[in-house]
Write a structure and sequence with these properties.
Chains A, B: It comes from Micromonospora craterilacus. The structure is a homodimer of 190-residue chains. Chain A has a single domain, classed as Tetracycline Repressor, domain 2 (Orthogonal Bundle), CATH 1.10.357. In chain A, 65% of the residues lie in helices and 0% in strands. The first copy, chain A, contains eight helices and no strands. Chain A is elongated and about 65 Å long. Chain A starts with a helix and ends in a 19-residue tail after the last helix. The first copy, chain A, binds a DNA duplex (30 and 30 nucleotides) through loops.
DNA sequence: CTCTCGCGGCTAACGCCGTTAGCCTCTATT
DNA sequence: AATAGAGGCTAACGGCGTTAGCCGCGAGAG
């Protein structure tokens, strides 16, 4: 295992265990038994470390999502993943700047899964993506009141899109709307 | 105008014009023609300033939302507000810690408006809130591909909930589901 | 076997950050 | 006229990411 990988490993452990304020170069170096400036022999700086963490996180999420075959499962996987790795989710979501560094292939996988489940209806796919992201974000931020039944909220959210799709499909026999597949799809994640 | 208000004003201008990385105590002091430590004669620290900014932002948003009478308008108002004040929106959304300092009344206004428009259906209200928040968040983060027609996405998102509500209302004549109003409603904002 | 070169550590330091301690001046009140 | 406090000031602390420059040690070349 390269030293660089060690650094990213420790960074991930630190982030997940103690939160973003503990992920500092000095602390990271301490954890590795070296001095902070030595980190720069292996890594260009903190942004690169954060990008690498996003990279890892995204890959695992995308793989999980690509295996889903219905909307409810997809939503559940997305939510469960975010709740299981809240700091990584936050990092991925709060720092779109670093996404220049991400290999582009990873992000489209999840989007492709979603697009497949909505029969290529881009606006709907994006609306669902937004909803899933927003619900998770609010949940992680503790924005919902303590007693709120969030399972019910997700259920309702997914059901709404499911029934609406069915309704739309029933109404739109013959010539469809302007909902055909267009560009390769929105980037996923976050 | 009290010195404290002056500080918050400058902070808001600075945040909106130059972004969060420019909102530092020293810069703030410079802008006011004083030294950084002097700020502490009027304000307990940076968190208080950020809380005050959130407070202002939330109040204006809540007032705008409280005046809406249909879902599409509510969504449009929410989105327009966020796009008009992206930094303030980010600040309000990224720092739920500071919400201890917020007067509780402000946040419930918007939630009340949303709850009113969904006939007291809490899960639906929360799903819509999550969706609006998520879509705005992704849009601000530049997560959608360049050519994406986001107006269409919002239209689809709102339409989906509108038709689903209609469908549900039609199906649920007689005994309703478990969707009656419960707690005073989720806190709004974000 | 020796010489060299570079990997991977080190210390010192810079400029930023939020914040505290302690001083002083000026104004308004008693 | 005396006094208290509001509101400035400077100096400083500990932390942050990062850069500059030094050095030992081990591997590979001659």
């Amino acid at each position: 295992m390269s030293r660089r990988e060690q650094i990213i490993d420790v960074a991930q452990r630190l982030l997940e265990a103690e939160g973003p304020e503990s992920l500092t170069m000095r602390r990271l170096a301490d954890e590795l038994g070296i001095q902070a400036p030595s980190l720069y022999k292996h890594v260009s700086g903190k942004p690169e470390i954060e990008a690498a963490l996003q990279q890892r996180a995204l890959r695992r999420l995308a793989e999980a999502l690509a295996r889903t075959s219905d909307l409810a499962t997809l939503a559940a996987v997305y939510r469960r993943w975010a709740l299981a790795h809240p700091r990584l989710y936050e990092l991925s979501t709060r720092q779109p700047l670093a996404r220049d560094r991400l290999e582009p292939g990873v992000e489209t996988e999840a989007a492709a899964a979603l697009l497949r489940l909505t029969a290529g209806d881009l606006p709907t796919a994006r609306a669902i993506w937004g909803m899933a992201h927003g619900l998770v974000d609010l949940e992680l931020a503790g924005r919902f009141p303590p007693g709120a039944d969030l399972d019910a909220v997700w259920e309702r959210a997914v059901a709404t899109f499911a029934t609406a799709s069915a309704t739309r499909a029933r109404h739109a026999s013959g010539v469809g709307g302007r909902t055909g597949p267009g560009a390769p799809g929105g980037r996923a994640s976050g």
